[in-house]
Amino acid sequence: MDPDALRATLWGLISAGLVVAGIVLGSRGLKDFDTALVPYAGASVFAAFGIGYRYAMWLRRPPTRLYWRRGWAIFLQPRRLPGNLLHLVRLFWDNFLIQRFIEHRSVLRWAGHFCLFWGCMLAAAVTFPLSFGWVRFETKASQEVYTAYVFGLEVFSFPIASLTGFLVFHILVLSAVLVLSGVFLMLWRRSRDRGALAVQQFADDLLPLILLFAISVTGLTLTISAHFLRGFHYVFLSQIHAATVIFTLLYLPFGKFFHIFQRPAQLSIDFYRRAGAEGKQARCLRCGAAFAALLHVEDLKSVQAELGIRYELEGGQHYQDVCPACRRKSVALCQDGLWRAARAGGA
Questions:
Q1: Domain end point (choices 169, 200, 231)
Q2: CA dihedral defined by 229, 232, 233, 237, rounded to 10 degrees?
Q3: What is the mean pLDDT of each run of 10 residues along the chain (347 residues)?
Q4: Mapping DSSP to helix (H, G, I), strand (E, B) and coil, where does residue 333 land?
Q5: Domain boundary at 175, 200, 225, which?
Q6: 147 neighbors 139 (Cβ within 8 angstroms)
Q7: If you ran DSSP here, which 8-state letter would residue 116 be given?
Q8: What are the CB-based long-range contacts (under 8 Å, 24+) for 328-334?
Q9: Phi/psi at 283 (nearest 5 deg)?
């Protein structure tokens, strides 16, 4: 087996093992684990293996590996660490909680992504702990009062007919409404944006929206069946809902949803850029102007050498030491020289 694939398989097994250990320990040796949720838990374990495998393979790419290591090295520098921690909090707020980087591209795109993000986060915060047996609800002295347990510890009690009870038992309805709102906004944008229409692909752009739509709609039908239809076809609807959720979990490591796990690692790019801007700047061999961070240029040279891309020049110099403007001028001069030679030969 290829060494990279073997290493990635090991990381996948570690990821899956951590999820299994979390299920066993969090459910107090499976005492609080609901056997009816075994398919969800099994799909989660498989998804953890796939995510660990693909993430490890992603980090084996020379550019990704370099940015990963360099980002951690810059972030953990003792003299930079306090400021980096504060900057990380600001980045997390802007890029994850508010997602301001998407708002700069399009307000409609931001609104759709914002609804999808928070709808999925709410659903994950509820369904995974329930599926793993980390959270359970019981009635004690009264059938009208529920007690919530987290990791076997009693947390709080609430009347079923209270506002708290309504929110607890309908939070997935809220998440489904948010997800459906995001799906419709994204489809509306994709149906009117010619740029998106020209490059969109079914597997990467439409299938994720279809899966989220299916999960949300089938989940809402369970609530409608239980509250308004006296459980009409509830078992069948629950099986359809389970199938959509499990398929999505199995698809998680292989499709566009994988960017959920890639995105946090990209925060290191901001620290990398800041360190490059504060450090020495590379100067063009031709015009002498500063055009990029020396750190970035030297790292680019090492990555190209690792990939077998040779841009070395005579005298130990490198093509990456030439600024973009001078590269365009060099190409124009070369083309002009070739045209002149061709015309002279024809004459």
A1: 200
A2: 20
A3: 88 96 94 90 95 94 89 89 91 87 86 94 93 90 87 89 88 95 93 82 87 95 90 90 93 88 85 89 92 91 89 86 92 91 75
A4: helix
A5: 200
A6: yes
A7: H
A8: 329/286, 330/286
A9: -115, 140
Total structural domains within the chain: 2
Helices (H) and strands (E) in the chain, counts: 14, 5
List, in order, residues 6 or more apart from 121 with CB less than 8 Å away: none
Residue 124 lies in a domain: yes
Classify residue 178: in a domain, yes or no: yes
Distance CA 91, CA 189 (A): 27
What pLDDT is attached to residue 240?
Answer: 94
Residue 280: its pLDDT value, please? Answer: 92
Contact 12, 53 (CB under 8 A): yes
pLDDT of residue 205: 84
CA distance 164 to 157: 10
Give the per-residue pLDDT at 106.
85
What is the phi-psi region of residue 233: left when phi exceeds 0, alpha when psi lies from -120 to 50, beta otherwise? left
For 56, how many CA atoms within 13 A lie in the half-sphere containing its CB? 19
Instruction: Locate 136 and state its tokens.
Output: 């359970």
Is 259 part of any domain? no
**Residues paired with 135 in a beta bridge:** 150
Distance CA 69, CA 72 (A): 5
Q: Give the residue among 256, 266, 253, 204 at the shortest CA–CA distance from 63.
A: 266
User: 194 is in which domain, residue-wise?
Assistant: 102-200
The span from the CA of 310 to the CA of 319, in Å, is: 9
Looking at the domain assignment, is residue 131 inside a domain?
yes
Quickly list H helices, 229-323.
Answer: 234-251, 259-262, 268-278, 294-306
Which among 180, 66, 176 has a CA at the least distance from the CA of 126? 176
